[in-house]
Write a structure and sequence with these properties.
The chain has about 210 residues and is mainly alpha-helical. Helices cover about 75% and strands about 0% of the residues. The longest helix has 27 residues.
Length: about 210
């Protein structure tokens, strides 16, 4: 058997590069969906409510009986677990990993994902990572001014939308429009009371 026939037989037995790449993308998407579902489930659970209370005011949360140290340690462990999964997948995709790959600029870029997309909702980090990962490819011809563009975008975002692009109210509106979440029930008596109070205010303004 010649060398060409042996190489052809080995190539036929193994998977092609495109097949491996497609399989890797499918695995990455499946892991991404699982991680997002895990974060959404935590956000809607008792643990997520404790996280929100500690984020708002840790002293008030401690006075309400929440073990602040315990939940902060849990948040650190969960974040380290997800970061470890991301680092492992990154190493398998690039086939080489080096400490210099995670320099100061890379860490700042990762921290910008939730700040840009919205740190109060799970989908904010997903949106921020999508935009800030795609933006350098779109603005490749302006690579020398990338840091300036990032800084300008952050300044504008902090001035216009300090909570990020996605907020809790925006996510609730989108969920109600898509039918994933029902509008909160408001009793008819409360509606009538609010209308009466609004009518009284208008009458007082007219008289004043």
């Amino acid at each position: 058997m010649s060398r060409h026939s042996m190489a052809r037989s080995k190539r036929s037995k193994g998977m092609s590069v495109s097949t491996i790449l497609s399989l890797a993308i499918i695995i990455l998407l499946a892991i991404l969906v699982l991680i997002i579902a895990f974060c959404v489930r935590i956000n809607n659970s008792r643990v997520g409510r404790a996280f929100a209370a500690i984020k708002a005011d840790d002293h008030a949360a401690e006075l309400m009986g929440i073990n602040v140290v315990y939940y902060k340690m849990m948040a650190f462990i969960i974040g380290a677990f997800i970061a470890g999964i991301g680092g492992g997948l990154y190493a398998h995709i690039t086939n080489f990993i080096n400490p210099t790959d995670f320099s100061y600029h890379k860490v700042v870029q990762i921290l910008l994902f939730p700040v840009f997309g919205g740190s109060n909702v799970v989908w904010g980090s997903v949106l921020g990572s999508f935009i800030l990962t795609l933006l350098p490819e779109v603005l490749r011809f302006l690579s020398d001014y990338r840091d300036i563009i990032y800084g300008a975008l952050l300044v504008i975002l902090m001035a216009v939308r300090p909570d990020g692009i996605l907020t809790e109210s925006m996510v609730d509106k989108i969920s109600r429009k898509l039918g994933f979440k029902k509008a909160p029930y408001i009793p008819e008596s409360q509606v009538l009371t609010e209308r009466f109070e609004a009518y009284k205010r208008k009458q007082q303004e007219k008289q004043g």
